[in-house]
Amino acid sequence: MISCCLQRSAFCRGTDNRRKPLGTIWETGYYWMTHLQNFFRYIRIVGTHNTVNKIFHIVAFECMFTNKTFTLEKGLIVPMENVATIADCASVIEGVSRSRNALLNGDTKNYDWDSGYTCHQLGSGAIVVQLAQPYMIGSIRLLLWDCDDRSYSYYVEVSTNQQQWTMVADRTKVSCKSWQSVTFERQPASFIRIVGTHNTANEVFHCVHFECPEQQSSQKEESSEESGPGEPSLAGPQLDPHALQAPGGSSLPSSPGSASRSPNRQHQ
């Protein structure tokens, strides 16, 4: 809870996050002024909850003024730009990848059989993205691995606390390839969980890119540049995309007898 005052006697509450979804790392709070001018000298921050212990910790604090306008809904920011980025302190907290946060680095071109994607074994685990703070979210966009003609099935859930999850997309009975746009009723979200349920090539679900909310402008640019889904990437060595090492050192398995769908694939 954040409150402000001029004389250190009567604090005026600016933001109240006591009952709002979990925030982590860098969190941005906006005090919406009810008058043309507000003068503050003191800012009081009161921690009310910690998921680990009974202490509230702050590493850094900044206070600024902006003329930029924001849309608020139920006290949370409705983002117009992609907030699932490394720069915005989002992170991948579940899923296997050769490069940490490859899912969020914005690179939708440089991926192949060996790198540039995040994955999980079907029937076990998921890919989970944690945003830096809770937002009102109504859309996401995914790029499924598409260097051959395979298709995937999956579903998407959102949560504010990693305990109660709400399904916002069910594509478990749909054959999905390449770019995926997911829209749903806007709701608070700090965590987005993507669970793969089927892969026509093997037993692993692969995702190259994630953004939240969906960026329409970038989608148009990519559609005009791409020659179509399924065109193999020529960058990097052509290795089997199920050959990642999961935490603990064991390889993510493929389905028995999975056949190559690309002439460049190397059997292992």
Automatic annotation (TrEMBL):
Residues 99-205 form the F5/8 type C domain. Transmembrane segments: none annotated. One of its GO terms (cellular component) is cytoplasm. Residues 247-268 have a biased composition (Low complexity). GO terms for biological process: adult locomotory behavior; circadian behavior; modulation of chemical synaptic transmission. Residues 216-268 are annotated as: Disordered. It comes from the Eukaryota. Pfam families: F5_F8_type_C. This is F5/8 type C domain-containing protein.
